[in-house]
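User: Predict the complex with adenosine-5'-triphosphate.
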Amino acid sequence: MGNVIELERVTKQYGPNKAVDHLSLSIKSGQVVALLGPNGAGKTTAISLILGLKRPTAGTVRLLGGNPQDEHIRGRIGAILQEVDVIDRLKVKEVIDLFRSYYAHPMPTERLLRLAGLEKEAELFTEHLSGGQKRRLQFALALSGDPEVIFLDEPTVGMDVTSRRVFWEMLRALAQGGRTIVLTTHYLEEADAIADRILVINHGKIVADGTPDQLKGSLGGRYISFIAGPAIQQDDLAALPGIDRTEWNGRHVKLYTANTDSLLFSLVERGFDMKDIEIKGGGLNEVFEQVIETEGAGIK
Ligand SMILES: Nc1ncnc2c1ncn2[C@@H]1O[C@H](COP(=O)(O)OP(=O)(O)OP(=O)(O)O)[C@@H](O)[C@H]1O
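Assistant: Here is the predicted structure with adenosine-5'-triphosphate placed in the model:
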């Protein structure tokens, strides 16, 4: 199947502020796509536009080949948005059955309870659930119509580490079954663990796009850090080959490079006076910081 989601030069403007700015994007079926970005980057707005909950100021959005506001498209998607309250005075199983009744071909209740890890809580009243359990119930409700596309806005907020890992495995299993999953997260580890593709958004634009490995590989993000002795001048280091970026913080230096081994060799060969030498990075944290700082110049 082709693209499940297609955005063409989509802008959403609030007064002078462009929450989403000429965003073009296509997502294929069966992918897990993570939207990353700092607070206010435009992630939730992008998801609301894809879901048809907000109308773009300009540009076109297509979901499952159609208009996201069409009834027959809505029935094929499931979503958890931020801070949605579940209905009180009903038991977990009853709320799930209520939501299932809205759909022609719902997922079986037992499967929903199992996927959400709520089998033991089935007979509990929803107001007695913990924060993390409520989040999992929302997930079960989002899946109740057996959707082809699932949108999750910060789905694991409030979950403990174990629940989060179980949740990731379950998402991967759903994607392997052919479902498309789009999630926003502030946890880089989460994006790294489950996403086939990461989109980094800042100021309403995509500033990086690739698999976790591509982003880590292309941006490197690896650096050598050390405390520079008094004789080392900034120009001495700037003249070394293969340095992408240098940061000085007092005498604490970070040298970013695609090849930390050969740079370390050059430093040692030149007899620089260095202490506390460390090679770090190569993780998504560094990639994220770099992309946000440099607005992703040239990275896509
Ligand atoms: N209804 C609205 N009216 C005015 N401005 C809005 C509205 N909704 C969002 N914005 C602005 O649009 C920008 C993007 O917000 P959005 O909620 O999409 O960011 P986000 O990436 O989801 O942030 P977070 O990580 O904090 O959830 C922000 O500057 C926000 O203040």
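The chain has eleven helices and 13 strands.
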